[in-house]
Amino acid sequence: MALPCRISVYTEGGQTRIGMIRPEPMLGMLSKDPALAKVAAEVEAATIQMIDEAA
After folding, report:
1. What is the structure's pLDDT at 2?
2. Are strands 7-12 and 15-20 parallel, antiparallel or unpaired?
3. Which helix (H) or strand (E) holds 3?
4. Are the C-beta atoms of residues 23 and 48 closer than 8 Å to each other?
5. 3-class SS of residue 11
6. Ramachandran region, residue 35 (left: φ > 0; alpha: ψ -120 to 50; beta: rest)
7. pLDDT at 35
8. What are phi and psi of 12, to 5 degrees?
9. How many CB atoms sit inside 10 A of residue 43's CB?
10. pTM of the model
11. Minimal CB count within 10 Å: which of 29, 40, 42, 44?
12. Hey, which residues does 20 pair with through a beta bridge?
């Protein structure tokens, strides 16, 4: 339900921005399962890396 995470691309003040909802805190609200927390951390790190490389 919570993955994959939505990535938003939008324009603000004449600049293109990329944003996302961080999966770690979002999934942490849904479950305290340590295995799920590990997956959320991996997904978050990979997504942040993709956004950084695109910027």
Report:
1. 66
2. antiparallel
3. none
4. no
5. strand
6. alpha
7. 93
8. -145, 125
9. 18
10. 0.77
11. 29
12. 7
Count CA atoms within 13 Å of residue 17 on its CB side: 9
Neighbours of 20 (CB within 10 A): 14
List, in sequence order, the alpha helices (H) in the chain: 23-30, 34-54
What does the alpha-carbon distance between residue 37 and residue 10 come to, in Å, rounded to a whole number? 29
- Contact of 19 with 5, CB cutoff 8 Å: no
Q: What residue has token string 């305290």?
A: 32
Contact 47, 7 (CB under 8 A): yes
Cα–Cα nearest to 45, from 23, 26, 29: 23
Each residue's pLDDT tens digit in the chain (55 positions)?
666 778 899 999 999 999 998 989 988 888 999 999 999 999 999 999 999 998 7
Look up residue 22 and give its two tokens. 């961080």
